[in-house]
Amino acid sequence: MNLPISQLSEHLDASATDAERALVTDADQALAGLQQELNRIQRSMRLTLQEKLQGFVGRTLGSLELNMRLAKLIQGMLDQHGFRVRCHQCGHPAILRVSPRKGMNGGAFVFDHTIDGRRTFHGGSAQVPAITLVAKPQRNAK
User: Fold this and answer.
1) CA–CA separation, 139 vs 133, rounded Å?
2) Tens of pLDDT along 65-75?
């Protein structure tokens, strides 16, 4: 979730005084330091969440309703902190969902994502798949 920080100094008017330039330079440095710190915190959160979620991998709660609730709770937690799961098939950031499937009482865990503007579902395991977390992508302006 590394958002590019536009440097304030790039937006200074040519008529800015030396004092104004110094203030803007200080602000740029403070923001860059803050961004670095936030990146470290987010990485630590991602790795910790990913490690804790491994306890669910290979499991099923047995029913479609319970598996759907599990996926929704996991995804809600990830969404709240700006994460998605990486799709095993294509590598795109995805939402973990459970879909009904014939012959699978507990449904199928799937990766829901958009590729080239089209909604796509990959996966289809009866158990929670391996979970690798990635940053949630920016929304496309419509």
Assistant:
1) 18
2) 999 999 999 99
